UniProtKB/TrEMBL annotation, chain A:
<dbReference type="GO" id="GO:0005737">
    <property type="term" value="C:cytoplasm"/>
</dbReference>
<comment type="function">
    <text>Non-catalytic component of the proteasome.</text>
</comment>
<keyword id="KW-0539">Nucleus</keyword>
<protein>
    <recommendedName>
        <fullName>Proteasome subunit beta</fullName>
    </recommendedName>
</protein>
<dbReference type="GO" id="GO:0051603">
    <property type="term" value="P:proteolysis involved in protein catabolic process"/>
</dbReference>
<keyword id="KW-0963">Cytoplasm</keyword>
<dbReference type="GO" id="GO:0005634">
    <property type="term" value="C:nucleus"/>
</dbReference>
<dbReference type="InterPro" id="IPR029055">
    <property type="entry name" value="Ntn_hydrolases_N"/>
</dbReference>
<dbReference type="InterPro" id="IPR050115">
    <property type="entry name" value="Proteasome_alpha"/>
</dbReference>
TrEMBL record, chain B:
<dbReference type="GO" id="GO:0051603">
    <property type="term" value="P:proteolysis involved in protein catabolic process"/>
</dbReference>
<keyword id="KW-0888">Threonine protease</keyword>
<dbReference type="GO" id="GO:0005737">
    <property type="term" value="C:cytoplasm"/>
</dbReference>
<dbReference type="InterPro" id="IPR000243">
    <property type="entry name" value="Pept_T1A_subB"/>
</dbReference>
<dbReference type="GO" id="GO:0005839">
    <property type="term" value="C:proteasome core complex"/>
</dbReference>
<dbReference type="GO" id="GO:0005634">
    <property type="term" value="C:nucleus"/>
</dbReference>
<dbReference type="InterPro" id="IPR023333">
    <property type="entry name" value="Proteasome_suB-type"/>
</dbReference>
<comment type="similarity">
    <text>Belongs to the peptidase T1B family.</text>
</comment>
<dbReference type="InterPro" id="IPR001353">
    <property type="entry name" value="Proteasome_sua/b"/>
</dbReference>
Length: 270, 271
């Protein structure tokens, strides 16, 4: 009995909230004009429509002993290169590393969700630790559910990890598209790095070969992606654990003869 | 009281609000702006190598599996074209004719910069409506030259260039492997690799690789230099169906001679 009355009163509150919302819509003159004649009421809430501070591409490959993920340290504010020391690679639990491209604030929120996830996992205190497959699945569900509410977390996440000798590399996009592959890329890396991976990746790459491959792709991104920064970090996940390198810069080559005097012999062109 | 149980049958209009909201916010189906092609050019030690794929698309249909995208402007100047096929064909034909007349007028071999200026001024006059993006290469008396021409009329003079929807995939190959003063074999291999990268990683490009090598001594036009998409299954039984393949269930013969009477008349007379 007591629960019934409680339920009813909750209903009542809910109803009055609803009607007060509608009232506020009618009172607001601008939305009244739109909502009066149509069946569509203009919502007073609006969700993220576009990202503000964004990180550019993240690249990931599997190699002989584990996973290598690379990202640069840039955060662009539209067309300004605003932040040059953003850490876009973070380790998750004991076995995984996540790299995020897209809106930086949403990536930080995702890190908070993951901290909560790993904390809850620790609290079970059962000797098991959350692995890359579980983290990937959690991220897929979070991203897809946010997308269904038309309030996406504007990120493409690359997740890699090694647990009990099994290598795992996967990707989740902001609309919930997810898959596992031997090599993944986000952002501009999709267009510039993926052709190189498809041509040059092979099973059983050594650590040096893997780093060289990632650096080669990052160099192409430096030349051809306007939001790339020459300050990259590489994360290495193996059975032993995860290490994220300090940021460093790549060598670029600008000394082609053709660049010194491009219009020599073709006076009249530019 | 107010809460309704979900309907068990009939029409559901839940998504109408969502669709109307999306339309109001400007959501529209994706448009394909870039054109389906990968064209590249490269300067090596002795000259210029131009490469192109061979797929012509009409929306999402492959209209021509093996078209030619490398056009001749002069015996020593060739041009790859991306964009609307009619625009690239006609612009290159027009400039080719103009260059021939120019050769007769001046009595000299054409220079690449002449072709470049003709193309560039024509395209600029049409403010980008002539949708032709070209990679122009040639070897004239001043040496090997390579230019990229954009639909609005701007040009770039480069040691290596890519255009079309597969340009990023091809450029990834070039940026990671280009070196100065390559030999002919290295250059051909790199150009073929760049076109193959476009063929396999871009949906708008496909089929075969065409190459064109222009040097001081002449030119080599290698049509279908590489064919990485062969037709792998051909039925061994063939497609000829001789008599006896199909079972005859019934026969009915209607002789037409009995129904048509032909009356011989006078021959027609010319008036």
């Amino acid at each position: 009995m007591a629960s019934d009355t409680k339920g009813e009163s909750k209903f009542f509150v809910f109803q009055s909230l609803q009607t007060s919302n509608l009232k506020s819509l009618f009172v607001d003159s601008s939305s009244a004009a739109t909502s009066f004649g149509t069946t569509l009421a203009k919502s007073p809430l609006s969700h993220t429509q576009y990202p503000y501070v964004t990180g550019s591409s993240v690249l990931g490959i599997k190699y002989k002993d584990g996973i290598l993920i690379a990202a640069d340290c840039g955060g662009s504010y539209g067309s300004t290169l605003r932040y040059k020391s953003v850490e876009r690679l973070k380790s998750v639990g004991k076995f995984s590393v996540i790299g995020g491209s897209g809106e930086i604030s949403d990536f930080q929120q995702i890190m908070r969700y993951l901290d909560e996830l790993t904390l809850n996992d620790r609290m079970w205190d059962d000797g098991n630790s959350i692995g890359p497959k579980e983290v990937h699945n959690y991220l897929c569900r979070v991203m897809y559910n946010r997308r269904n509410k038309f309030d996406p977390l504007w990120n493409t996440l690359i997740l890699g990890g090694v647990k009990k000798g099994v290598k795992y590399l996967g990707m989740v996009s902001m609309i919930g598209v997810h898959f596992r592959e031997n090599h993944v890329a986000s952002g501009f890396g999709n267009h510039l790095a993926r052709p190189i991976f498809r041509d040059e990746w092979k099973e059983e790459l050594t650590l040096e070969e893997g780093i060289l491959l990632l650096e080669k792709c990052f160099r192409v991104l430096l030349y051809r992606d306007r939001s790339a920064v020459n300050k990259i970090q590489i994360a290495n996940v193996t059975e032993e654990g995860t290490t994220i390198s300090k940021p460093y810069a790549l060598q670029t080559h600008w000394e082609y003869k053709a660049f010194h005097n491009p219009t020599q012999g073709v006076e009249g062109s530019w | 009281m107010v809460m309704e149980a979900p309907a068990k049958g009939g029409f559901r209009f839940d998504l109408c609000r969502r669709n109307a909201m999306l339309e109001k916010q400007g959501a529209h189906p994706p448009k394909f702006l870039k054109t389906g092609t990968t064209i590249v050019g490269l300067i090596y030690k002795d000259g210029v190598i131009l490469g192109a794929d061979t797929r012509a698309t009409e929306g999402s249909i492959v209209a021509d599996k093996n078209c030619e995208k490398i056009h001749k402007l002069a015996p020593n100047i060739f041009c790859c074209g991306a964009g609307t096929a009619a625009d690239t064909e006609n612009v290159t034909d027009m400039v080719s004719s103009q260059l021939e007349l120019h050769r007769y007028a001046t009595g000299r071999n054409s220079r690449v910069v002449t072709a470049l200026t003709m193309l560039k001024s024509h395209l600029f006059r049409y403010q980008g409506h002539v949708s032709a993006a070209l990679v122009l290469g040639g070897y004239d008396v001043t040496g090997p030259h390579l230019h990229a021409v954009y639909p609005h009329g701007s040009t770039d003079t480069l040691p290596f260039a890519t255009m079309g929807s597969g340009s990023l995939a091809a450029m990834a190959m070039f940026e990671s492997r280009y070196k100065e003063d390559m030999t002919k074999e290295e250059g051909m291999e790199l150009v073929a690799a760049a076109i193959c990268s476009g063929i396999f990683n871009d949906l708008g490009s496909g089929s075969n690789v065409d190459l064109c090598i222009i040097t001081k001594d002449g030119l080599e036009f290698l049509r279908n230099y590489k064919q990485p998409n062969p037709r792998t299954y051909v039925s061994k039984r063939g497609y000829s169906f001789g008599k006896g393949h199909t079972a005859i269930l019934s026969t009915k013969i209607i002789p037409l001679r009995e129904q048509v009477t032909v009356v011989e008349g006078d021959a027609m007379v010319e008036e």
